[in-house]
Amino acid sequence: MTSPAVEIVDLVKRYGSTAAIDGLTLSAARGAVTAVLGPNGAGKTSTVEICEGFRTADGGTVRVLGLPPASAALRPRVGVMPQSGGVPPAARCGEWLRLVSRFHARPLDPGALLSRLGLSDHVRTPFRRLSGGQQQRLSLAAAVIGRPELVFLDEPTAGLDPQARHACWELVGELRAAGVSVVLTTHHMDEAERLADHVVIIDRGRVVAEGSPAALTGAERQLRFRARPGLALEELLNALPIGSAAKESPSGHYIVEGQVDPGLLATVTAWCAAEGVTADDLRIERRTLEDVFLELTGRELR
Amino acid sequence: MTTPTLDFTPAPGAAPFPRMVLAQAGAEIRGMLRNGEQLLLTMIIPVLLLVGFSVAPLIDVGGGSRVDFLAPGVLALAVMSTAFTGQAIATGFERRYGVLKRLGATPLSRSGLMLAKTVAVLAVEAVQVVVLVAVALSLGWSPQGSPVAAVLGCALLVLLGTAAFSGLGLLMAGLLRAEATLAAANLVYLLLLAAGGVVFPLAKFPESVRPVLELLPISALTGGLRTVLGGGALPVAAVAVLAAWAVVSLVLAARTFRWE
């Protein structure tokens, strides 16, 4: 059996006396997209940089494609997109990508890749004069040009406009379809829900939950609306079928969970009418990863 | 916008080592020749010093033609500006911008990167030598002795000088922040330009400090080049001083260098 793309067991990383990573265990399957989701400072970048061989762990074991992260043999097989920088400011966009391509035996065509990422008009533009989003896209291009087996993308869509973000998502989809293993970090739950086969939610250097987006958010739907803060929910709960739940979180935002059907909707609106309030922005939706994170940690994701 | 189809199917592999090194060396050379401040240091200042002090009777070279005295000194200065000052500053900023770290994630090994930097420094030095020799000859410079001995002697001295100055430059870039490296490298350049026999003969300095000044790598290089290009035999003392600086600085640089 082949080893997973990434296998981390009990990883510990300390900076001074604080543990940035505190016993983290996760596994990223080959050929799948694994999203490491968490707020800033959760330990995402430290974890990825240890896998990339940039930092050394203080404890635990890490295997990348079955090898220790610092192995020279991994360098051609693994593509890396750092969170920022890594390119000389005066280097021209096209030159940099051509340079990285020349380190590889069977690279993609730099011109085609630049065109694919909408950078064709900036081939001769120095890196420092590219916009933040263009710099990100060049960095993404450099990560995949060598046709790696595994790519690490550290916050690949940070600072991208919606259009570029979708282009990036599309590219990740193509990598997956071609059999490339992808490990990406993000604090955008929509990104993780949309791209990932497997989501690992981390907070304070530990895994707090993991699974497919569907498994994490659950199948059940919920009803949400906004109204005057401080409504008494007991009456509503009494009227709802057993097994339902209702809560106000945050203030003025109400969530009703349970068997969301026309009967439940009617009960809720009738209760609103009795309370003399108009439910604003009433909608039925699934739980988001944001909700899951909030429930697990009591903190907002961003 | 056209969307060419790209085959992302994994096909990893490192390029042959020489191709990686040449590609990186090419990028380093382009970077050096494109940087205005670096060109000022490596080309414009040496040429201006050579022309200015050769034409205007500002210095007393103790008999003989001024250009015969200045040409070897300015060649030594050119080596120092590229191998030491330029390399220290460029490497300091590469670390600051995360370039060294990013390159560390490519198949190019660290030894490959160091080799590429050396190739690039030697290539830029070759351009400097061609330009400075042409300017000096047009100013009436007449090197003495057998051309073969002169070329071989100069090549050995320049290689040793390049090793010594590269070691010092990388040592400085490895220890200091990028901005501090920028300031310190320029200061050291100026001090060594003034006190290393480049344009001001060491004979003009007080007797008490001369033995110390003669141990500077720049003095060994200027003195050695001057002797060889004046028709003399390769001076063992200069070779020994440069070799000692090269060994000490490269060992220290290798021990202290931080990649990020």
Automatic annotation (TrEMBL), chain A:
Q: How does it sit in the membrane?
A: Peripheral membrane protein
SMART domains recorded: AAA
Among its keywords, does the record have Transferase?
A: no
Please give one Pfam family short name: ABC_tran
Q: Which GO terms describe its molecular function?
A: ATP binding
Keywords carried by this UniProt record: Antibiotic resistance, ATP-binding, Nucleotide-binding, Transport
Q: Does the keyword Heme apply?
A: no
Name the record gives this protein: ABC transporter ATP-binding protein
Protein's organism: Nonomuraea harbinensis
